[in-house]
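Fold it.
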Amino acid sequence: MQIQIGKTLAALRSAKGWTQPQVAEYLTQSGYPVTNKAVSKWETDSTQPDIERFLLLLARYGVHDAPHVFGLTPAYTIFESLNDTGKKQALEYIGYLAADARYSDRPVKARIKVSRQIPLYDLPVSAGAGAFLDSDAYELIDVDETIPLDATFAVRVSGDSMQPRFVDAQIIYIKPQQTLEDGEIGIFLLNGEAFCKKFSGNKLVSLNSKYAPILLSEFDELRIYGKVVA
């Protein structure tokens, strides 16, 4: 019988009273960004979460005996049925489990946190009405290895137009770049106002459907500050 991991993940989520957007937000806030669509695909067995995200879900759902909960056959039987690539991935997965104090019977050495400082701008990037981003008013904040190294500054979202992925007052991390691919979320300066929006060719789009897209014209002054990476 084929194991349907997605159906079990969906049941565990429902038992906790969570929505798929809340799961996506939790993983993103934990340093492992994911979209609502990806969570949906996991739960329909179209795709599967990677090791790090799967472990975070198990911890959040309170799962301590994954083989039993997911109806898996004994590990040695599964391992021997895998090809070389599958065995390599299984060993990698075991390595993650062994390094996590929640799953290891042996003392786990504390991971050395690698931290650095990046500027967090006091003036919020608007997720609704817009505000100036250019400012010398910022504070340096510590970030660890969960934040991509190419994220060199951070801003706070203001408003609810980028919910459910980004909520009011949430800190988001930006990789400076002057271009974006269609569908990517970035920070824009449009006619003197700064926005956090999804880029869609000739318009800037909010994730909250109650906000209409901002249409761009040849007369607008648009500058891209960078791409949201966490």
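The longest strand covers residues 116-126.
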